[in-house]
TrEMBL record:
Keyword Signal: yes
Keyword entries, A-Z: Signal
Organism, scientific name: Pseudomonas izuensis
Limits of the NodB homology domain: 180-304
PANTHER family, per the entry: GLYCOSYL TRANSFERASE-RELATED
Signal peptide residue numbers: 1-18
Keyword Signal: yes
Superkingdom of this protein's organism: Bacteria
InterPro entries: Glyco_hydro/deAcase_b/a-brl (IPR011330), NODB_dom (IPR002509), Polysacc_deacetylase_ArnD (IPR050248)
Protein name: Polysaccharide deacetylase family protein
Annotated CDD domains: CE4_NodB_like_6s_7s
Entries under SUPFAM superfamilies matching the protein: Glycoside hydrolase/deacetylase
């Protein structure tokens, strides 16, 4: 009995150490300006880039044991962490180069950044003065970026043993890195929840807004819908939208023996019933997939579709307004990318319209789902 107790205690301690921290979100009302023109979008973008660069730079002073302690892990894959850090720095430099092109119209947060060394130099001394117009934003933003960085570094520390969207296994996997500045793609996961399913509401909202998104569906969900309604009805639901697959069930495709069959069955069903909407994309549930799957996906003519901007709107994570504000903050930080919402959380019906309103005059664009990836 004592051995069992000690074993349970050890397992619980491991679980506790591995538990992720708080999910990052930022109250956008702390930012004093509306994003009602492209220049003001750039001002806010420069500020978020510099703040994230500041916390990213500070994290590099942690040695491996200190980083493991900060992330709540026993060990970290430093090779993966360093690779992800390098990619984050490169994206920050690219983003800032675009964001500073409007400095002649508004010089706020315009500092000399010509290359990586000057970006790191500006990050090291970035500070918001107590008398600054932006002081109410400064500390909430710093906390957001520290939490968001920990989310990314934790995934990097566990990669590839625990796969996620933080890194790619090859060119057959796509995220939003290659998209043009100010261009974003809306995508919607099915997730594990059976209900509510807000697909009908979201697709109608997008059509009324003359927009499109990519919906990653579960094969069993499409099968269940077809048992309740006609193929024509289902085609009407997804009219002008794109459909990729998440597999037959929402479960990890990294350790599931039948993962290949899960993908094939889902693709066959969608291609046969919704051929006008089908796009050859597989989104791994929770980003979990095998590292040796390239040959399979290429043989099926599929790309793995990851994402850059996660609303974290799964059950119990963030409320609708929090996930919407998280998405907007990450749009300002990365300036382009693939946004991931959960279509089976009611919050999407609040978050999506809010996001459209906030960015309507900001000069951003929404990628047509047929042109993505």
């Amino acid at each position: 009995m004592r051995i069992v107790f000690l074993l349970v205690t050890w397992l619980l301690s491991v679980g506790a150490m591995a538990a992720p921290g708080e999910v990052a979100t930022l109250d956008r009302s702390t930012w004093p300006e509306k994003l009602n023109n492209p220049t003001l979008f750039d001002v806010a973008s420069r500020a978020e880039i510099l703040m994230f660069a500041r916390v990213l730079l500070a994290s590099e002073s942690l040695d491996e044991p200190a980083l493991a302690q900060r992330l709540g892990l026993r060990t970290v894959n430093m090779e993966s962490v360093n690779r992800v850090r390098q990619r984050l720095w490169q994206r920050l430099l690219t983003s800032f180069n675009f964001a500073q092109q409007s400095c002649d119209q508004d010089a706020s947060f315009c500092f000399l950044v010509e290359d990586m060394p000057t970006l790191r130099e500006q990050a090291a001394k970035f500070l918001i003065g107590e008398d600054s117009y932006y002081i109410k934003w400064a500390e909430p933003s710093r906390l957001f970026h520290a939490q968001y960085l920990d989310e990314q570094l934790r995934k990097a520390a566990l990669f590839p043993q625990a796969s996620s969207e933080v890194d790619r296994f090859g060119d057959y996997e796509r995220n939003g890195d290659a998209m043009h500045d100010r261009l974003f793609l809306l995508t919607f996961d099915s997730a594990a929840n059976a209900a509510p399913d807000n697909t009908d509401w979201v697709t109608e909202y997008l059509r009324k807004s003359n927009m499109s998104g990519t919906f990653f569906v579960l094969g069993k969900d499409i099968q269940a819908r077809l048992a309740e309604r006609s193929v024509a009805n289902l085609q009407a639901t997804y009219s002008t939208q794109c459909i990729g697959v998440q597999g037959w069930e929402f479960r990890s495709h990294s350790h599931w023996q039948d993962w290949q069959d899960s993908v094939r069955r889902s693709v066959d069903l969608v291609k046969s019933k919704l051929p006008e909407n089908y796009v050859p994309l597989f989104r791994p549930p929770d980003g979990q997939r095998r590292s040796d799957a390239e040959a399979f996906f290429k043989s099926q003519g599929l790309h793995v579709a990851l994402w850059d901007i996660d609303a974290q709107d799964g059950a119990g994570k963030l409320k609708a307004h929090q996930s919407a504000q998280r998405v907007l903050t990450l749009m300002l930080l990365w300036r382009h990318g693939v946004i991931n919402f959960n279509v089976k959380q009611d919050g999407v019906k609040t978050a999506l319209p809010w996001l459209m309103t906030q960015t309507a005059q900001s000069g951003i664009g929404w990628e047509d789902c047929q042109n993505a990836f």
